Amino acid sequence: MPTVSVDKSDLYERLGRTYTTQEFDDLCFDFGIELDEDTTEEVEAAVAKGLPTERPQLKIEIPANRYDLLCLEGIARALSIFLEKAKPPQYRLVPPAGGELLTVTVDPETARVRPYFAGAILRNVKFTPRSYASFIDLQDKLHQNICRRRQFVAIGTHDLDTLKPPFRYEARAPEKIKFAPLNKDTEYTADQLMTVYESDKHLSRYLHIIRDSPVYPIIYDSRDQVLSMPPIINSQHSKITLNTTNIFIDTTATDETKLAIVINMVALMFSEYCEQPFTVEPVKVVYPDGRTQITPNLDTIPMKARASYINSCTALSLPSDDIAALLRRMSLIAQVSKTDKNIIDVDIPPTRPDILHECDIMEDAAIAYGFNKLPKGFPTTNTVAQPLAISKISDLVRREWVQAGWVEVLPLILCSHEENFEWLNRKDDGTLAVKLANPKTLEFQVVRTSLLPGLLKTARENRSHPLPLSIFETSDVVVKDPTLERQARNIRNAAAVWCNRTAGFEVVHGLLDRIMKMLEIPYIVNAASKAESGYYIKEREDPTFFPGRAATIYYRAPPQPSQSQTKLANVKETLKSAFSSTPTRDIEIGSLGILHPSVLEKFDIIFPCSALEFSLEPFKKNIESPWDHANDEELSKGADIKVV
After folding, report:
1. Do residues 284 and 310 share a domain?
2. Where are the coiled-coil regions (predicted)?
3. Distance from first CA to last CA of the chain, Å, rounded?
4. pTM listed for this prediction
């Protein structure tokens, strides 16, 4: 959640009283936000030492979808309405004094880079140093939040008195764009600006958005004076200052919905500083297809909420009038319908784009009433939870291996491509691993297909611990599966690594035998045996393991004949098994062995290790649930899931 720092004295002055830290913390909780820090003590300590410091600040955590609370003005306005010290403002569009709207014409070439535009004008604004700083800070908060670091929307603000309308929003080749950027007197081409800002800690983060585009967006006035090159930098010519009175706000975007939200937030939060508070002068935007838009759109959105629905969700029994009064405390315009007393007509103001559904209105009513005041009661239905079969068996493995003296570890599920394949001497055929499209670091490139990389990295980082090092993990791996809608599948695996001065193959083999015994799965001495079910191991050649010191784990599930299964089918299966070294019902579930020295070298482990990894998925059928039986007596006694 974003954290907003506001001037403590300014906020309390707007709220009409001072609060202790605890009182304001309680107020924030009641309203659904959180006081993160009060810097008063730090400031007082700095002042006592004679050190320079800023005024006391309140750092407040804001819900990510409450864009109207990202500045002092929005927080003070919302809290004043919540405390019923003020009424929700009526935001209005006012025509310009001359009668003709400022026009911005959008060039067709902008469709190649940032096709949408919106604008607004704030007239006769009176800024103070702190309100000016809040104005700039709001833009930055929006850029980092809904604008997704300017990729979806970019905001520019300009001194309108330095410009001559109408304006043009165009897209030109970078070598054809030249202007003096903000806080610089020298003119640069767009190509040169990309080089200039490569070393800038702030702006370098946004260069990639348009750098590879054949054309860059640019805004001109009627005298070809540049306003800004979104989403990178504004022009020095139209820079706003404390003396600026008429502000032109431009927003360009790749997402039209977010564009409308952002222009409303910037304009309406600071419209209170206009000579006529809460008024905005609209801008006419003309698109290449002849379509025109008047921005910003300050129309309220009508919605209906049922008092019965709100009462049923909150366990209250409030009349519709009381619910409407609660909603008005949350800056909503609400009144009971004249035709149906159960219906509340709610108008959603342009500052509340987070209200999308009747459930959002219900939530606001609950906040205004007070979550701590809501009645507590038992649910009308009783249900008894039970773990999934795979979770039940995973817990069984954890419990048994911990009791055997092994330590459970929890590595990350993402790893590098090298760790998942090359370091284990395995090849990537492209059909197994799920790869991240845009990994931030080389450490997190793929979703692991084996638990071994995480265990070996854990062993490497803990090599200073006394030997032996015996660690295990029971968790998911992910593989591609084109047959599923999501194109990937989770598999629950169990894996263990033993690290000591000797390899310890017999130790991991014993660990496997132990868990199979707990699952009541018998050991099959000979793979050709006619045993109905069980497990056995068979030598294998695997580059991950030392030659001649690796084995495949096979599992033979018990037969489960259905009514449709015939004797002929059984005969066919018997014949297939007779001509195969591995019976048809035997499935490979994992492997174990002594790790190859080259694997240990890549993971920087100096001691020999043995490893075990197998899938728990085939054993889900061995978990019996009480819900599979109709024995009500057993259920009433609290029968537990058990291994059979």
Report:
1. no
2. none
3. 48
4. 0.68
